[in-house]
Design a protein that fits this description.
The protein is α+β, with helices and mostly antiparallel strands. It is built from four helices and ten strands. The chain is globular and about 45 Å long.
């Protein structure tokens, strides 16, 4: 159990998403992580209800404009494919509201599950769903590099 004084989330996850969510009481740290100019990668594993081919990947990588807002990803790669679904690894430099869901939806790709697995050098790892822990000094130092 963590004793948490005033903290706020660094970014957000929508209700249907899961994964790594940083909490901090250092607003400058939070702003640095969220500023697109900082190029702090946010990495997601996304299960889709389709089997992607190179043409689909090319369309997704080209991005989309939704309601006048351009949506792109730094990278989109296939992690694994099954018989009717696949998992993609999608890396964003900035996370706009429902960014991945809107980007994939613009290409008629259904998102079945969305998990943020990393923010910059920090990995979700084996931390169980609903659990929290403090960052180590070594992990904090990774963000200073």
């Amino acid at each position: 159990e963590l004793d948490l004084p005033f903290v706020s989330p660094v970014g957000r996850l929508d209700k249907a998403s899961e994964g790594l969510l940083l909490m901090t009481n250092d607003t400058r740290f939070a702003q640095r992580l969220l500023d697109p100019a900082s190029h702090v990668a946010k990495i997601y594993h996304v299960q889709i209800g389709a089997l992607p081919d190179e043409a689909m990947l090319a369309r997704l990588r080209a991005g989309a404009t939704v309601d006048g807002e351009p949506l792109t990803a730094r990278s989109i790669d296939i992690l694994r494919s099954g018989t009717s679904t696949a998992w993609l690894e999608i890396t964003l430099d900035e996370g706009r509201n429902r960014h991945i869901r809107r980007l994939l939806g613009a290409h008629d790709v259904e998102v079945l599950r969305l998990v943020r697995v990393a923010i910059g050098p920090l990995q979700l790892g084996e931390l169980a769903k609903g659990k929290a822990r403090h960052l180590t000094a070594e992990e904090l130092a990774l963000f200073q590099a």
